[in-house]
Design brief:
Pfam families: HEPN_RiboL-PSP (PF18735)
Protein name: RiboL-PSP-HEPN domain-containing protein
Organism: Stagnihabitans tardus
Structural class: mainly alpha
Helix content: 55-70%
Shape: globular
Length: 173
């Protein structure tokens, strides 16, 4: 259970990183990004402890700042529930409610992450999760949610930059 949730969390970190890399590769300037993303980058610079951080935005430096801001935000996630994930993907990719693309809906992920939290923090006092439930329910639900997320983000990025190709291939569900 703990490892499956860790894999889900790592997947979210990796897919956000890949998506931001794709956006940096396609955008010639910050103006090519959605308004939410530009605001997130600006807020990161303004909130920086480093008084000269704004100078890092010169030239193509904004790309490094964008990547850094997104990475710091996603690295801070330790409960990858929709209420935590959705705002991050909106802020750094302009995605309105990523969880709305999930076939099983957001409650499945909430329940899964909550169950993982109970096990991690309450130990023997937590509800018992059978290997059958883990194998037959949770794992397929996470796998499907990953596919839904991959396919949605691939199309979103393609549309965002009017690209001929997606950043990665869509996969059959």
């Amino acid at each position: 259970m703990l490892l499956l949730c860790a894999a889900w969390e790592l997947y979210l970190e990796e897919v956000l990183s890949e998506a931001v890399d794709f956006a940096c590769g396609r955008a010639a300037a910050p103006d090519d990004l959605p308004k939410e993303v530009k605001k997130a980058i600006a807020a990161y610079v303004v909130g920086s402890q480093h008084e000269l951080k704004a100078l890092a935005m010169a030239g193509d430096g904004w790309k490094a700042v964008y990547k850094e801001a997104a990475q710091i935000k996603i690295d801070a996630v330790n409960t990858p529930k929709p209420g935590v994930i959705d705002p991050i993907f909106k802020k750094f990719l302009g995605v309105n409610q990523l969880s709305s693309c999930w076939h099983h809906g957001e409650q499945v992920i909430k329940d899964f992450v909550t169950a993982r939290g109970d096990i991690a923090h309450r130990g023997g006092d937590a509800g018992y999760v059978t290997i059958g439930k883990l194998r037959d329910e949770y794992r397929p639900q996470i796998e499907r949610t990953v596919l839904d997320t991959d396919n949605f983000l691939s199309q979103h990025l393609r549309d965002m930059f009017r690209a001929k190709q997606r950043p990665w291939n869509k996969r059959a569900v």
